[in-house]
Amino acid sequence: MNEPASEATTMSTAAKAVWFFSGDLLFASRVESAAVRSGITFSLMGKWPETWSTPPGWIIVDLATRFGASSDVIAKTIELFPDAQSIAFGPHVQPARLSKARQDGFGAVLTRGQFDSALPSLFEP
Asked: Domain spanning 15-121 has what CATH number?
């Protein structure tokens, strides 16, 4: 059963999911594969969900396709899921977006190449 956002803080943190905010379906499949290999639920997001069945352990934002939503996503992450790992990544040729994500409070801000390199082991315990 999906839990409303207001009950997020009462949910068990034992089960974790990857919430991936992106419009890049091809790259999303790579992230999904890495999550599934580690036994973690994957959800491709276009916007912040109103309900969910598994709280996130990782919240990842693709700044190339979801930059407009990144400030809202990190604000809600900090409020509702302070223990979730927050990651923003984007093209190295867009340093202003990377800098804004750092200022907004993402736990890690990476170039797309750095994120891609880290992906094979990102979700391993």
From this structure: 3.40.50.2300
